[in-house]
Specification:
It contains twelve helices and two strands. The two termini are 25 Å apart.
Amino acid sequence: MKAILLAGALALFLTLVGTRVAIRVLVAKGYGQPIRDDGPTTHHTKRGTPTMGGLVIIVSVVVAYFLAKLIAGETPSVSALLLLFLLVGLGTVGFLDDYIKVVKQRSLGLRSKAKMVGQVIVAVVFGWLALSFPDDVAQRTPASHAVSFIRDIPAWTMPTAVAVLLFLLLISGASNAVNLTDGLDGLAAGASTMVFGAYTLVNIWQNNQWCELNPGPKCYDVRDPLDLAVVAAALTGACFGFLWWNASPAKIIMGDTGSLALGGALAGMAILTHTEFLLAILGGLFVIQTLSVILQVGYFKATGGRRMFRMAPLHHHFELKGWDEITVVVRFWLITGICVAAGLGIFYAEWVAGS
């Protein structure tokens, strides 16, 4: 528990201080965010806002985790290291995308195929490693071959190749979902803070009812739940600290560097806690945003050019209807809060019902 508190506090402090330094450096170098010309006209004032702020989040999480483990005198776990690998790996893909945007001053960075190849490589390596490294006690690997909701569903056990494919789809979907949500000041950072906070609680609860400590019919047969809570706390603190500078009017934007990394970390957390489909509830806002894009594209093609929404993702639709940006952000935060409360309620109710 000491490491959890330390990681959260250190990550919060590092992003509060580090983001201020990053803003100065990025402004000096002229690394400003290009803005789409077809988006809401109110966004044109954001042109030139420093981007790639996700670097501060990633560095803060990694440093906070290792410092917390060092101070607490604990050894890093395989599960935590894998999650950090996913965070850094997808963050690197996002950084390349952002860097091309700011250097060439265009709204498109990496080509879609190159971006997807980078995501696939990171996700596949993560998936393969997550199904390796069994522990010495119960031969548990960090991830499971079984599909999971709140815990593994034994009847839905998959071969390794299929499991890795599922992980790939989940990681790609979550990273792109957060990327789509990161279109308004503070929206993705605030929503991510709540979902990672929820996973901190999930990990602590799983550790308290862990099969290795409290064996029984309803114990959680997972690997390293307490150490995953340390990473989740660091992610929560880092997103919260970054929000200080990213809230409207944003002084810095996380960019694809941050959104791809945070989305991948959410998927990795779901995989390693064996709560893969619970993520769809906890991160309900990200699902809604993604569905709005899918529906918009599908409806456009099916009707020969008609639109279901004024613009997708969904937050832009409400902006074009006349909602202030801050109104959209706060109401979408409220939706995230409802989704998080519902997800945690379902998670706890399942344990109570079977205890």
